[in-house]
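Task 17 of the worksheet. Students: predict the tertiary structure of the chain below and write it out as structure tokens. Keep your answer in the requested format; marks are given for formatting as well as content.
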Amino acid sequence: MKTRFVWIFGLLVASLSWGCSSNKDLIKQQETQITELQAQVTNLETELAAEKRRSEEMNAELEAALSEYQKKEQVLLEKIDDKSVITVSDAMLFQSGGVNLTDNAKDILDRIGEVLSRYPDREVRVAGHTDNVGIGLEFQGRFQSNWELSTARASSVLHYLRAKHNVPPDHIAAVGYGEFRPIGDNSTPEGRASNRRVVIEVGPKL
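Model answer:
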């Protein structure tokens, strides 16, 4: 009986010792994982801080490049989250109903393009917008609707930035929203004018 008790007691001690050892190994493993995660968080915070500084520097350069047009309220530059958002009236960019860039348009895009050339890793999206007035008879053979017109105008801007300022093709895109994202009242001339615009968004690559 005594021998059996000693044997059982020995098994119990061995089991507890193994359990303690196992717990120690688990705790050590968890501590290692926590240390690794803390290092990753620190690295991400450093990268985010660097990205924020870079975004702010680029926005300041765009601000300086476009200041002349902003003072005349012909161009609007906004900082929205991590993006620089440039809004230009279509009257500054195109002739009525057309998609060919004016001299003013090329000057504005050259100023933007010179900044972008110093930030080749940025993601650029060009969005075309129109008012709710339908396509004129003289242009109906070229554009089925305002969607096509707004897309063609955004594409004109895209191709100019690509050809003149070498914006990487995998970092730039064009989209047309037609009349479906208005910022003004389409029942007034002033509202329709504000809706006819091109918006260039520049931000970090996703």
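Marker's comment: The first strand starts at residue 75 and ends at 80. The chain has one domain: 53-204.
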